[in-house]
Batch of 3 targets.
Target 1
Amino acid sequence: MIRMDHATTPSLRTRKVSLSWSTRSTDTTNNFKLTIPDIELSAGDTLLLKGSSGSGKTTILTALAGLMGKIEGKIAVNGTDLYALSGPKRDAYRANLIGVVFQQLNLIPYLTPIANVLLPFTFQRTAGFSDQDLEKRAFDVTSRLGVNRSEMLKQSSSDLSVGQQQRIAIARAVITRPAIVLADEPTAALDDLNRDAFLDLLFETAEGEGAILVMSSHDPAVAERFSQTLDLNRIQTGLEGMV
């Protein structure tokens, strides 16, 4: 059930996590294994997963979201080991406690903006909240992000500007008041000015919701904004550690 509040102080802990994945080309399959340093994050912490293409950034985010079949080690969100849960229970836990901002935003173009923002609630029953309650929550969040009511009620999300679509994507990620917000290279296609504006919104919103923020990027210019950085290129060359 979604309660839209934090039952406990948000936390993310990993212990001895190793991840395996494969990439395929025309005639070869390449297998990779990445062991990451232990992560300890609490409410308000921010972590950048930094590295070149193919270094494992998206794989780590996928694991942190509880979307891998299995892993070596332990990933705990608010004290619960994600991979000790059954598939359906993990899905329910993720829907409540983890929000995601995708690189391509992944808005559904034929839905209204407000329907996109409220989409996470379609995966869970809500406890004690009417449709009006949920819509008010959506309007409150998007208003703080600079999207007005008339824009939220447009016929299609594709009618919005790129900047407005970015705001809708952030609102959708935090609408359930998650413990953790995961963002997969959301600034990759943006110029410097739009990148900085988007990051301002992302940081302010995550902080306002009391959430942990974990983001991946290959852009070195964003690293100084994060309280911690995990450099995957250094891990792959044996220089493990978080800074």
Target 2
Amino acid sequence: MILNRMVRWRGLAPQTLEHCHVIANGRDIRIRGVIITPDYGLFYRLKLDEAAHLRTARIERTDGKVLELFSDGAGSWSDGRAEPVSALRGCIDIDLWPSPLTNSLPLWRSEWTEGVPQRLAMAWIDGDALTVRRDEQIYTKRDDTHFRFQGADGFEAMLTVDEDGLVTDYPGLFTPAD
């Protein structure tokens, strides 16, 4: 994948504004972004390998709180102190709240067949508390521009993606910003 794009979303609940820059050069993917919420600002940096497996994530809030995660790309994780995070074993991707960008990560690295669901273990990061936990999610390709998202808690949404696999609409939560 070769990509050099800036993308913006507006969060609807809560009201947020996100701006990120995605650079994919065939060797790796680097993503930098900022999210402005009513309560804090959040900066994130993600690095993925050539197969779109997350390798490093750094999330920093404007109040000084920082969360760093490192992955071997095969499901083993450690934190910023190089301590293993066994609760995330088997997770390949992260899902950062409040951002639709990270919903694109599993779409980039997986092979998809229309109508065939894939259950994925995600390292779910709560930007409000700056904590991480394992989360089971199901994605199903409906057509070239739509994926059904299902969370373990029963939440469902039909995500719209563009030709680069970036989420452009997440009904009720995120919409493109002008």
Target 3
Amino acid sequence: MPLDFTAIDFETANSSPASACSVGLVRVRDGEVVAQTGWLIRPPAGHDVFNEWNTRIHGIRAHDVIGAATWVQQLDRLCGFAGGDVLVAHNAGFDINVLRRACEATGIAAPPYRSLCSLAVARKTYDLDSYRLPKAAAAAGFGEFSHHDALADARACAQIIIDAARRAGVSDVDALGSALSVPLTAPLASTPERAVA
């Protein structure tokens, strides 16, 4: 099987994992980046207050997302880009939880994506003093980038997986996970809030 996956990164408006305010997506086919995109998201109601700390990190403010698609409006676009790929993220637990919680907050079922964590992969691949995304990406040959820009972060994450697979001598994400003892995971099933009695 070829090295095919979609790298994903979310930024959030506040500490709520449902507060997605931007997403970056990078499609990899046979170990090469073939497409990338990203957009702003209007966070779900009740999760849409922009915390000063978060804004300081990513620079996105409430007025930036006024005209953006809501979570529900953009989910088909996100899923259309990712297709049936494994989603790869740096600290994948965070990004997959954003996907799940934003779906729960809007009363829709979360798509059942499998995921692979590039942070865990980096820890098994490189000998670094820190495995934060900029350091791990640099070890993978991906130089300076706008950290906390969702698309730039997704691109950096993709490079870590591409480089790790090359170093491990494997040709797909399942084999990479096996070679490094980093299991691919599936998100927990989510129940739409509207369906809860």
